[in-house]
């Protein structure tokens, strides 16, 4: 996988480079400031981009803006955004254009090497990887929503779906059968008025689209 990294913290940036190259991926470019990001992405057209939200010169949302601009120029560009904290508005804005090939992780997750690499590979394949804390914020950010009709177990299933997990992983995590997971997913989609598709990323995209526009 060819990857562009945008991170202003030199130690973390070099750590990401080492981590990805050790895992067999190729880092084709690195950026340390916001203005460097888009030109690097357009020049190298990577398989995935790993971007910090807040970058120099202003440390506001330079990484996010670059991600949004890049996906306009390169539709479908897989982007994994890193953030120090849960910034709900940034996550919602990133997902507004569609959830395919998008991830939003807290930087602490990078330290969990297997989880981070799995998330990046899911995003590069067109899937979704949202940090559990981000999912929690998205699930609770609007009062009086149809989400209130979900049972606690259905909410757990929805949260794990939004993180990008398949039925087998959800079943293992919740210590239930895959048949039970399938039933819960059907109930979730029925209550949210979503198509009862239970295949691949389409169900995740449908749920995230609903959450973003509810």
TrEMBL record:
All residue ranges annotated as the HTH luxR-type domain in the record: 143-214
Modified positions (4-aspartylphosphate) in chain numbering: 52
Superkingdom, taxonomy of origin: Bacteria
Every Response regulatory domain range: 2-122
Matching Pfam families: GerE, Response_reg
Record's keyword annotation contains Transcription regulation: yes
PROSITE patterns xrefs: HTH_LUXR_2 (PS50043), RESPONSE_REGULATORY (PS50110)
CDD domains: LuxR_C_like, REC_NarL-like
Keyword terms, alphabetized: DNA-binding, Phosphoprotein, Transcription, Transcription regulation
Name this polypeptide is given: Response regulator transcription factor
Protein source organism: Streptomyces lanatus
